[in-house]
Amino acid sequence: MSTPNIAAAKAALSHIEQDENPATIRSKSRDFFWYSPVLKEKMDHLEADFVVNPKSEEEVIEILRVCYAHDVPVTTRGAGTGNYGQAMPMRGGCVMHMKNMASVKEIAPGRVVTEPGIVVKELDAQTRAHSGQELRMMPSTFATATIGGFVAGGSGGIGSCTWGALRDFGNIIRLRVVTMEEEPRVVELTGDELPRVSHAFGTNGIITEIEMPLAPAYDWTELLVAFDDFPDAAKFAEGVANQDGILIKLATVIEAPIGKSYFQRIAPHVEEGTNLVILLVAPHSVEGLKTFMEAEEVPGAIIYDSTDNDWPRTPGALAEYTWNHTTLRALKVDPSITYLQVRYRYPDHMELVEKVRAEFGAEVLQHLEVMRENGKVMFAGLPIVAFSTPERLEEIIRIHEEMGCMIFNPHRYTLEEGGRQSTDARQLNFKREADPKGLLNPGKMIAWDDPDFDYATMYDYPAMTPKPEAAE
Amino acid sequence: MSTPNIAAAKAALSHIEQDENPATIRSKSRDFFWYSPVLKEKMDHLEADFVVNPKSEEEVIEILRVCYAHDVPVTTRGAGTGNYGQAMPMRGGCVMHMKNMASVKEIAPGRVVTEPGIVVKELDAQTRAHSGQELRMMPSTFATATIGGFVAGGSGGIGSCTWGALRDFGNIIRLRVVTMEEEPRVVELTGDELPRVSHAFGTNGIITEIEMPLAPAYDWTELLVAFDDFPDAAKFAEGVANQDGILIKLATVIEAPIGKSYFQRIAPHVEEGTNLVILLVAPHSVEGLKTFMEAEEVPGAIIYDSTDNDWPRTPGALAEYTWNHTTLRALKVDPSITYLQVRYRYPDHMELVEKVRAEFGAEVLQHLEVMRENGKVMFAGLPIVAFSTPERLEEIIRIHEEMGCMIFNPHRYTLEEGGRQSTDARQLNFKREADPKGLLNPGKMIAWDDPDFDYATMYDYPAMTPKPEAAE
Ligand SMILES: Cc1cc2nc3c(=O)[nH]c(=O)nc-3n(C[C@H](O)[C@H](O)[C@H](O)COP(=O)(O)OP(=O)(O)OC[C@H]3O[C@@H](n4cnc5c(N)ncnc54)[C@H](O)[C@@H]3O)c2cc1C
Ligand SMILES: Cc1cc2nc3c(=O)[nH]c(=O)nc-3n(C[C@H](O)[C@H](O)[C@H](O)COP(=O)(O)OP(=O)(O)OC[C@H]3O[C@@H](n4cnc5c(N)ncnc54)[C@H](O)[C@@H]3O)c2cc1C
């Protein structure tokens, strides 16, 4: 690893927009890593040496060419809403912020072609205005996150109850990518090439153009359904998602007392013991939903309907109580809590959830997101965990795994540890070709740095900028 | 049952359009009943006394009022493409043809309000032109059948691989219905009232307005995929339907040698032993589909792509080789064959199909339609059966049922026998209220005529117009 020549690179890029304010540089070096007490402890000190804001693919190419020549690491930033420190510069260097590359290039039936730096909500507004279309799925950070950050750092979200995960065949159509070489190349990836860079945290190429499938945009009706018993709530959410004629965009199950304790605008309308199901339903499916509820004698009541309610103060977009926003709301009220990411797989999903509840009780409060996986309805769990020690957190994870749950550990900054704890050869091989010096978002791909790593303990990137204390 | 006064009713309706040509009256008294050798034998002689073509709800009300007063049975006709004799006047009387009530009243995001007599293809053309929308599902007779006939006499079709059956919650929004009373009433049915008249063959009310949900209309790519082995073909069709990110409208599995023997324009391109999968795929999902095929090493080859092929003569719309059109094409080549309607339920669908194939071999050639039921992908079977005797047909049905398949017998003209062989109390109760004299499409609801019927043998409507031979 050669020593970066920061000053030379920064100077050579002086004609491209840069942020000079130290506070801005610091804030643009951070994301939602602090969500995890483990990552907060490890990454809080990280900071870029400079921040550059390209406004075109040509400028991206130039930045990569210059940084390659001067051995400067480049960590790409969408909006910095990632919650694993994905966008944090482990060795300092350059943070490349994509916010100025936000043009939508083409909208057609079922597809959109866009630059990566556009905020998801703005992209949806444009496709909706153009032809009543929207992205199939979006993260709950849709109001601030970029589409590029979602593709490079996300995995699914609102819409996944219908369309599955971002990585599923058909959920990304095409990515245009710039490589980090002496002379950067522009490559177009489709089909089986897409997994090389999707959810690769920008470790092996910079996405400059994205083609995504679109679904019809409706004025989704937002509903809150209250249940006394948690299993009834979970069964209802699953049941709605299995109704082929009822079109939904979201079905979230929230165990009591999360609603009362953490959802401040909802709290006045629920009890300690209220379990909630949050639904986004196509307006033309609302009556079908209500008929289903009557026919099945669902033991829950609709307590809020965005199209018809007498709440003096509405809760705002219900989608912003789901996916990782549930955790965010809990953290705002009680900064001591933390969370996990669990997969409860079909057909054991319901049984596994009950096992976990029986084991942990209030230490692990359930928050389930209905998802489709291989055509079956199942649950992604983002439980709220009472944090005591990192050791207990490890133990909780282990017990989940022993029960048969799959854990995507959100307390890790590497691709492998947040995923399936194994090398993705497609991503590794593409990095060999597209980032031979290993300068793109360093420290995030274990397979690149330490192929023999055994996952016995948390990976510690040896070249990470040391903490100031340690340096003293 | 009072004797109808045909002449008086016809005269009282002389200001409403009527068909006077005897050949027209005969043809408008018939549907696709002849599909079944059993029904052909029983119903071939049936004929209306007169045919009237209302052009408004007011005229429908007048027809029903007059026929009620004169005890004249009224059998409603959409386009007469039903294949169980649904639209055939069992006791003669009036056939009311809805073709003049074909206006689309409103199109909005996710919904359409229409009169019942419009042909499905024309309705789709209007919703597509208006806002890129189309019906969620349609029968393979879409080019000739009416939406009213589909709702009153159909069950699902092209689109059911995604949206389930017509009867599923949310797949019909609202029906406006005229009753057959001294003073006919107009009632609006929604929610749990819909099953009273949907798929009730017009036995308890005449539908004058329909509100249906819409889905986005795409220029669906039509594909033919060829397989040497039937189970590979079935597994592929199921697998595609279980890919959450790949949007399809149709997945049909056709056992060899149906393609070679009966699909005349496809035959030159396939072998005797070629099993076929017919797919309609959203254009923005085609690449995802191909990636899936490679990733799964699917042992099939795309032999026809509607957007890119060198066939000197294209097969036309592939949808018209599916659902009951498969049978139609076989019948045209070999009038001696017949068919069944089977449900192979999840999770045993694949295994059941193989059991049936092992039992019957070429006597029952498989034709599977991928459907969703309760959120799971399964198969509706419309096998092509080598007809020998009605007794053997009964035996084949019995063996299917013993294996655990569900049969919807297409060789019966009653609602109950073509369905679950049990009374639908919702339909019966509504008939009591809406058709007290039992004049609407008589002979089609056993529960009305003979509540104690035991289903030991085929129901024979006692009041059916006797055959001319029998009358001699
Ligand atoms: C409250 C909260 C809720 C969340 N909910 C969800 C959710 O529902 N679903 C979900 O999937 N995620 C969720 N996340 C994670 C994150 O918000 C999303 O994945 C989001 O889409 C990231 O977008 P961003 O623009 O903020 O990306 P960033 O955080 O800036 O970047 C994410 C990763 O992508 C890389 N990157 C960004 N742009 C590019 C580019 N053009 N080329 C190459 N690499 C690039 C970055 O280097 C980084 O590794 C949530 C996070 C929080 C804090
Ligand atoms: C080759 C072939 C393929 C087919 N494929 C399918 C398929 O894929 N899926 C499927 O579901 N069906 C299928 N069918 C059956 C039939 O074509 C469809 O159900 C079609 O939608 C019926 O429409 P129609 O206008 O022809 O109705 P008709 O046959 O005229 O009528 C059907 C029934 O509805 C009643 N009816 C019609 N209009 C009204 C009204 N306004 N109010 C009250 N009652 C009314 C009639 O009395 C009759 O009982 C197929 C039939 C054939 C021959």
Structure, described:
Two copies of one chain form a homodimer. Chain A is built from 17 helices and 21 strands. Chain A has 472 residues and is of the alpha+beta class. In chain A, the strands form four sheets. In chain A, strands 14-11-13-12-18-19-16-21 form an eight-stranded antiparallel β-sheet. The longest helix of chain A has 14 residues, at 390-403. The two termini of chain A are 24 Å apart. The mean pLDDT of chain A is 97. Chains A and B meet through strand 10 and helix 10 of A and strand 10 and helix 10 of B. One flavin-adenine dinucleotide binds at residues 31-32, 75-83, 86-87, 98, 116, 139-141, 145-146, 148-150, 152-157, 201-202, 206-207, 323-325, 328, 441 of chain A. Residues 31-32, 75-83, 86-87, 98, 116, 139-141, 145-146, 148-150, 152-157, 201-202, 206-207, 323-325, 328, 441 of chain B line the site of one flavin-adenine dinucleotide.
Which ligands, by name, code or SMILES, are bound? Answer: flavin-adenine dinucleotide
Query: How would you describe the shape of chain A?
Result: globular
For the record, what CATH class of the largest domain in chain A applies? Alpha Beta
Beta strands of chain A, count: 21
Instruction: Supply the number of helical segments of chain A.
Output: 17
Helix content of chain A: 25-40%
Average predicted local confidence, pLDDT of chain A: 97
Rg of chain A, Å, rounded: 22 Å
Task: Please outline the major beta sheet of chain A.
Answer: 8 strands, antiparallel
Strand content of chain A: 15-25%
Regions with little confidence, pLDDT below 50 for 5+ residues of chain A: none
CATH topology-level name of the largest domain in chain A: Uridine Diphospho-n-acetylenolpyruvylglucosamine Reductase, domain 3
Domain FAD-binding PCMH-type (chains A, B): 43-217
Pfam families (chains A, B): FAD_binding_4
Protein name (chains A, B): FAD-binding oxidoreductase
Organism (chains A, B): [Roseibacterium] beibuensis
